[in-house]
Design brief:
Blueprint lengths: L3 H4 L7 H40 L14 H17 L2 H14 L3 H18 L8 E6 L6 E9 L2 H6 L4 E7 L7 E7 L4 E2 L4 H9 L29 H14 L1
Helix pairs in contact: 2-3, 3-4
């Protein structure tokens, strides 16, 4: 009996269907570009506005209305402050300022916490946010992406006599908020995934999934169609057996 579905002519896509397909294709192409430009432009305008309010006489400059000038001036000022702070006079001024801030009840807590976080993250010898792990959370059988922020130390490590790590579990789509978990090292799965790929996975809600080949993927490289050599061997054997049966 002949299959009528196989001989049936393919359905022609109407004009409305083509227009809809073209619209979504254009949306996929332009939306990331427009979103990137919008966020970059908003950030530049925000920084320019802050610099204009902090630097006296900034609005009177000829190039004050040029976008990005405030960003450049901000980078230069931060670099100059860093150069001054590295010297003897700068260190003395910083110690004097810190001694004044440490006498303020609320301000000293904010300053101390922010300084410690920045020193930990920016330090080149720090292991914070350099390892991606899988953690069973919030219950057994459910897994989440987490970032190792360091080994568990101080009183927490003394109270729990187990080799533990501090894991930050971010929320979706805002990875700046999340939960701090003290996890036994044996209960977490360390991933080969980079931190950048893990952040993309979290922010996209699982839509953007990084490739998994056990090796760093070069830019522009594609892993589609690649299979381990051990998987191809059984196919050759089965093909040889089929040939012997037919003979």
């Amino acid at each position: 009996m002949m299959n009528n579905d196989a001989n049936a002519p393919a359905k022609r896509v109407g004009l409305l269907g083509r227009l809809r397909s073209w619209f979504f294709t254009g949306l996929l192409v332009t939306a990331p570009v427009l979103l990137t430009v919008y966020i970059t432009w908003a950030a530049i305008n925000l920084i320019d506005g802050q610099v204009a309010s902090l630097v006296p006489g900034f609005s009177e400059l000829r190039f004050a209305n040029v976008p990005g000038v405030g960003l450049v001036i901000g980078v230069v000022l931060i670099t100059v402050i860093g150069a001054v702070a590295a010297g003897f006079l700068g260190r003395w001024i910083i110690k004097l300022g810190e001694s004044i801030l440490n006498r303020m009840p609320v301000v000293r807590s904010i300053y101390g916490a922010s300084k410690q976080i920045l020193e930990t993250v920016i330090s080149t010898q720090s292991d914070a946010f350099r390892e991606v792990v899988l953690v069973e959370y919030p219950r057994k059988g459910l897994w989440v992406i987490g970032f190792v922020t360091g080994g568990t130390k101080a009183e927490v490590a003394r109270r729990i006599d187990i080799d533990m790590v501090n894991v930050f579990v971010p929320t979706t789509p805002n990875p700046t908020s999340g939960f701090l978990l003290f996890c036994p090292r044996k209960d977490v799965i360390f991933m080969d995934m980079s931190v950048e790929d893990a952040v993309k996975l979290v922010v996209s809600g699982g839509i953007v999934t990084p490739p998994d080949d056990g090796k760093p993927v070069a830019k522009g490289a594609s892993t589609a169609g690649k299979r381990p050599a051990s998987r191809k061997a059984p196919a050759k054997k089965s093909a040889g057996k089929a040939a012997r049966k037919t003979s």
